[in-house]
Specification:
The protein has nine helices and no strands. With 197 residues, the chain is mainly alpha-helical. The protein has two domains: 87 residues, Orthogonal Bundle (Rna Polymerase Sigma Factor, Chain: A), CATH 1.10.1740; 89 residues, Winged helix-like DNA-binding domain superfamily/Winged helix DNA-binding domain (Arc Repressor Mutant, subunit A). Helix 2 packs parallel to helix 4, helix 6 packs across helix 9 and helix 8 crosses helix 9. The longest helix is centred in the last third of the chain and has 50 residues. The chain is elongated, with a radius of gyration of 28 Å.
Length: 197
């Protein structure tokens, strides 16, 4: 069993702050934006402070901080690339199919019907997080699964629910169109008969 050691601000500052300049320079070179680099270094120090009780004194603090920095940068880039590509490039609007919109007029029955068709493992987390407004941590503890699994299932579950709502709406539209077409055909075929009588 490991025990977390108590740490002081002075201890953290003496170990971590001497590397601030090098972390910032590296982040600025990797990202290419000084303001974003400042934010990333700040996030790095925040994460380092939160985990400093697990840092082993006498080991390489600089290497430890750089590992954290590059994890922060990787996380930042995942978000940056997804926003940048979809926002800046009109080309993709013409090439990639858009997401089908969820209908504006949904009843509680429509949502419950679609939710019942989502697999149970995803439905459970959607009910806890989106309906009961549990935090991810609370949902993880309640279901006895890791928080990362909860986050993944919420994301995937929302996609599945959205697709089910779109699918259900399109089948209703197809059914109503078919019913309307059948009625029109019946009217058209009935009209000549009525005229002849």
């Amino acid at each position: 069993m490991t025990h977390s050691r108590s740490i002081t601000v002075e201890e953290f500052e003496s170990e971590a702050l001497p590397h601030l300049k090098h972390l910032y320079q590296t982040a600025a070179h990797v990202i290419g934006d000084r303001t974003e680099a400042e934010d990333l270094v700040q996030q790095t120090y925040l994460q380092a402070w939160k985990a400093f009780d697990r840092f082993q004194p006498g080991t390489n603090c600089r290497a430890w901080l750089f590992r954290i920095l590059f994890n922060v940068i990787r996380h930042h880039r995942r978000g940056w690339f997804s926003r940048r590509v979809l926002v800046d490039c009109d080309f993709f609007e013409d090439v990639l199919p858009g997401e089908n919109p969820v209908p504006d007029t949904l009843t509680d029955e429509d949502i419950l019907f679609a939710l019942d068709r989502v697999p149970q493992s995803f439905r459970e987390v959607l009910l806890l997080v989106d309906v009961q407004e549990f935090s991810y941590k609370e949902a993880a503890e309640t279901l006895g699964i890791p928080i990362g699994t909860v986050m993944s299932r919420v994301s995937r579950g929302r996609d599945l629910l959205r697709n089910q709502l779109v699918k259900n709406n399109s089948s209703v539209v197809v059914q109503s169109t078919t019913v309307e077409a059948t009625r029109e055909a019946q009217r058209d075929s009935a009209s000549p008969a009525l005229l002849q009588s």
